[in-house]
Design goal:
Elements (H helix, E strand, L loop, with lengths): L1 E2 L4 H4 L5 H19 L9 E2 L33 H7 L4 H8 L3 H12 L15 H11 L2 H5 L19 H8 L5 H8 L3 E4 H5 L9 H7 L3 E6 L13 E6 L2 H16 L3 H16 L3 H12 L4 H4 L3 H16 L5 E7 L4 E7 L3 E10 L4 H18 L11 E10 L4 E13 L2 E10 L12
Parallel strand pairs: 1-2, 8-9
Antiparallel strand pairs: 3-5, 4-5, 6-7, 7-8, 9-10, 10-11
Length: 441
């Protein structure tokens, strides 16, 4: 018997207790029957994410849980040695196609696809086999290598794999979270005990730590120093972080799907529009693409106290912009003040100032753009971010509280020459995308 993703029917319905209970009852009967097949079954292997109680799977001794056993730690992923051996002929070809050294290629493969750990000794780190296969599949195609117009990139292939985020999605759907705090918490190291990792739980007892850890969103980086000498493995605790860049991309996409009450695959394609607009420096299109996402935003996520609203927009925009080609951070300080948002591409640094407006008049929108510009001039945002060869562009975005969308924009590019400072200014309005108020529905 080979059973993959045994928990998927349960994990994808944490937001429907009645259906969860029905499915749980069916699975309990099935796994009770499966246990009786020991004498007849040659081999049984079951994979999955969550450990739910009352399913007959995690009780008794006849089925062994290998999840954190060091002996099986490399069972479900590629080690670096395995990649070096199995993809030996493709590694130099990939590096050549990307115009980088093999050492630089390994560095990027590690950042994007490595870091999974299924080992209570924290001794083995694994690469995502799905993503590694997808990455090198193009390299194995001679037509791809010979076509100079086709680029090889470190894409978030995990988006295309089955069920990776189902548990997190259904978990968030029945809870209200401050997404800003949630993102900040899991962008840093979190400490998780062995008991949290390995103990079966009821659906009503599942924690966010368990969802993220057991789904691979966050992974063990090392054993905490104070628990290295623990008398038993049960007493150990671990430092855990977002597994890699690819997983971080999926995590952000799920958070955006939660904020907009949308499907991740729909979100993913809309995110590409936002990121392509920014990479092209088209701020008008950027505003429109952000509105495509904002127009479906959940009212209860944005229905916060006035002082929190701008923080939510900052988080939302940062989540939209971050990718393998764009590095985005909010509240970036210099010696004068704090810039709302900074996004860095290969050749450009964009410093954003966000303003909210109640009025719907054109005059009020441009007056607020003027105010935002004066603030950026006064605080000289981005003066500490200038990198050699990169251009700094100030971006002002006005957000309509009425529509919860971007309604006006302005960019300022300053060029320093021997004759003095030259300023290039562009601006415009963005028409809101009108949809029915979701609070009413």
């Amino acid at each position: 018997f080979l059973i993959d993703e045994w928990d998927y029917p349960l994990s994808s319905h944490l937001d429907d207790p009645q259906l969860f209970a029905s499915l749980q009852s069916v699975l309990a009967k099935f796994y009770s029957w499966l246990r009786l097949q020991n004498a007849n079954a040659r081999f049984i292997l079951i994979t999955g994410i969550m450990r739910y109680r009352e399913t007959s799977l995690f009780t008794g001794q006849d089925i062994q849980d290998l999840s954190m056993d060091p002996f099986y730690a490399d069972l479900l992923g590629y080690t670096k040695e395995e990649i070096e051996q199995s993809f030996k002929r493709y590694i130099p070809l990939a590096a050549k196609k990307m115009g980088i050294t093999t050492d630089e290629l390994w560095e990027q493969l590690e950042l994007n696809y490595d870091g999974f750990c299924f080992d209570h000794q924290a001794s083995v780190k694994l690469y995502n086999p799905f993503s590694i296969n997808k990455f090198f599949a193009s390299v194995a195609n001679p037509n791809f290598l010979s076509n100079s117009s086709l680029q090889l990139t470190f894409e978030p292939f995990w988006m295309g794999s089955a069920g990776a985020s189902a548990a997190l999605r259904s978990f968030l759907n029945v809870r209200k979270y401050d997404v800003t705090e949630l993102l900040e918490t899991y962008s840093k190291t979190v400490i998780i005990g062995n008991e949290t990792m390995t103990s079966p739980v009821k659906a009503t007892e599942v924690t966010l730590d368990q969802i993220l850890l057991q789904s691979g969103m966050i992974s063990i980086k090392e054993i905490t120093e104070d628990s290295l000498q623990a008398a038993t493995i049960v007493a150990r605790s671990y430092k855990c972080e977002l597994t890699n860049y690819e997983v971080a991309s999926e995590f952000r996409t799920v958070l955006l799907a939660y904020m907009t009450n949308s499907n991740e695959k729909v979100i993913y394609h809309k995110l590409l529009l936002v990121q392509k607009a920014l990479l092209a420096g088209d701020i008008a299109k950027l505003g429109n693409s952000l509105n495509q996402l904002l127009c479906n935003s959940r009212y209860d996520v944005f229905d916060e106290k006035d002082e929190k609203k701008e923080r939510i927009y900052r988080t939302f925009f940062k989540l939209c912009m971050m990718s393998h080609l764009i590095n985005a951070n909010d509240e970036v300080s210099n010696n004068h003040g704090r810039c709302d948002l900074v996004a860095k591409t290969k050749d450009t640094i964009y410093a954003f100032e966000l303003k909210r407006i109640q009025s719907d008049t054109t005059e009020a929108k441009f007056a607020l753009l003027d105010e935002a510009e004066q603030q950026m001039v006064r605080n000289d945002y981005g003066n500490n971010l200038i990198e050699e060869g990169k251009m700094l562009i100030w971006v002002m975005l006005v957000i309509s509280d009425k529509y919860r969308q971007v309604c006006a924009w302005r960019t300022i590019k300053r060029t320093y020459t021997a004759a003095g400072t030259q300023i290039e200014r562009h601006e415009g309005l963005v028409e809101p995308i009108k949809v029915e108020n979701q609070k009413g529905s």
